[in-house]
Amino acid sequence: MLDLILLFFLARHMGQEAKRKGESATRWIWYTIGAWLGGEFLGLVFGVIFFGIDMTDYSGLIMFGLICAVGGYLIVRAQLKKIPEPFDDDINNIGNGL
Questions:
Q1: Is 93 helix (H, G, I), strand (E, B) or coil?
Q2: What angle is formed at CA 14 by the lines to CA 37 and CA 75, rounded to 5 degrees?
């Protein structure tokens, strides 16, 4: 449950960052949600493959899935950070304030 709350705030932050860079906020929010859920699913699958299923304790498997989910978020965040900031041509505004 806490991971969904974290995902909500991270997706909202990515949307704000995308707006600031002039990108579609909705698209980057969906990228974030997809990367989070995809990373969590792949983490759970790889966790089962590597560690097996212990029917008494799923906490290690869940933690491995969450670590992979955060990794998916960080990949999307790195892609958004690569997009340059919008260029503001201040040279045209010189002298207009007088």
A1: helix
A2: 55
Q: How many whole angstroms separate alpha carbon 14 and alpha carbon 37?
A: 15
Closest CA to 31 of 15, 50, 9: 15
Distances (CA, A) of 79 to 7, 22, 24, 47, 71: 18, 14, 14, 26, 13
Residue found under tokens 């932050």: 13
3-state secondary structure of 40: helix
- The distance from CA 81 to its chain's CA centroid, rounded to whole angstroms, is 11
User: Whole-number mean pLDDT of the chain?
Assistant: 86
Residue boundaries of the structural domains of the chain: 2-84
Rounded Cα distance between 35 and 74, Å, is 9
pTM of the model: 0.80
Using one digit for the tens of pLDDT, what is the confidence trace for 14-37? 999 999 998 999 999 999 999 999
